[in-house]
Write a structure and sequence with these properties.
There is one protein chain. The protein has 319 residues and is of the alpha+beta class. The chain folds into two domains: 167 residues, Chondroitinase Ac, Chain A, domain 3; 103 residues, Immunoglobulin-like. The strands form five sheets. Strands 1, 4, 5, 6, 7, 8, 10, 11 and 14 form a nine-stranded antiparallel beta sheet that branches. Strands 2-3-9-13-12 form a five-stranded antiparallel beta sheet, with no helix packed on it. A five-stranded antiparallel beta sheet has the order 18-17-22-23-25. The N and C termini lie far apart (80 Å).
Length: 319
């Protein structure tokens, strides 16, 4: 009987261990599934991009175009070559995208940062050229004059060119640092007496009238998202309330589940900001918006609400 009881006891213990192991395994699987939920936020954000404006100029004599938001571009004669270096004649198709609001900066994934440093934008724009479906570039020595009329312009405004990062966002580099430029006239009255920002571009692509955000009394700032929202399916932005600045928090700390601009992440205490985020999970879009005033070493938790694309468009454009 004693042996029988021992066998029964051992059997019960084995069953209990198996049940516990099964339960722990199930919990572990659930946690892994929850923490590794993926998505492609770059693809999701692409549906919000502004539709480019279309123009034509002569590849031989050049020409001028003016965008709906006021940016004018003047192309010189014989301005274009193919990517292989062949001179271009005939009609050239020009594509222009103008970004002048914080809402468009967010929707176009075109934040105003340069290697993690905040920028104040005087206007972003994208110029592309093509002929018969093939992309073109500027011929050596040719310059495109870009002029944007403004009132109460900032005489400290400079000029930056943009590069698309791995997450689909833009990072900006100031012209004149390792890049040859012909003319820089950042606040120009012009012969017509119209004040504005002017620059002679030596290449097509993304450009930005910008200056660095001057700040003091800085602190770190991080945004903490729910566990389902990670860098693969979520884009988080800090929108300055009183400046034309919208920075993407592109660095994700998986252990702390926080987003930040970069490891330095300096932002002035007392700055009034709006944290906005767009996410896509299992085909559903989500939106988050939280107003705050920066305090020392702040970690701000945010939550998300399911929205349609049209609703996100409207919310972002109201920023």
């Amino acid at each position: 009987m004693k042996t029988t009881r021992s066998i029964l006891t051992a059997s019960r213990m084995l069953i209990a261990i198996l049940i516990l192991g099964s339960t722990l395994s199930s919990c572990k699987k659930d946690e892994v599934k929850q923490n590794t939920e993926t998505g492609n936020i770059a693809t999701a954000l692409s549906q919000f991009k502004s539709a480019p404006q279309a123009f034509t100029v002569s590849g031989t004599t050049g020409g001028s175009v003016t965008g709906a938001e006021g940016l004018s571009l003047t192309f010189p004669a014989n301005a274009f070559i193919t990517l292989s270096g062949t001179a271009v004649t005939g009609t050239v198709n020009i594509s222009l995208t103008e970004i002048n609001t914080k809402g468009k900066m967010v929707l176009n994934n075109a934040p105003t940062t340069s290697q993690g440093k905040f920028l104040i934008s005087g206007g972003e724009f994208l110029i592309e050229a093509e002929q018969n479906g093939s992309k073109l570039k500027l011929a050596p020595g040719k310059r495109v004059t870009a002029f944007k009329p403004v009132t109460n312009g900032d005489a400290a405004m400079g000029f930056f060119t943009g590069k698309t990062e791995a997450d689909g966002s833009l990072d900006w580099t100031e012209e004149g640092q390792g890049q040859q430029v012909a003319v820089k006239d950042t606040f120009n009255g012009g012969s017509t007496g119209v004040a504005g920002y002017a620059y002679n571009l030596d290449s097509l692509g993304w450009s930005n009238f910008d200056r660095f955000y001057s700040s003091a009394n800085n602190t770190t700032f991080k945004v903490q998202t729910p566990i389902e929202y990670v860098d693969s399916n979520t884009a988080v932005y800090v929108v300055f309330q009183n400046e034309s600045t919208a920075a993407r928090l592109g660095y994700f700390d998986a252990a702390a589940h926080t987003f930040e601009v970069d490891h330095s992440n300096n932002i002035p205490i007392g700055t009034q900001i709006l944290v906005v985020a767009i996410a896509e999970r299992n085909g559903q879009m989500y939106w988050s918006s939280t107003a705050t005033t920066i305090i020392a070493n702040q970690v701000l938790p945010i939550t998300f609400t399911a929205k349609t694309k049209a609703e996100i468009d409207q919310l972002a454009n109201a920023l």
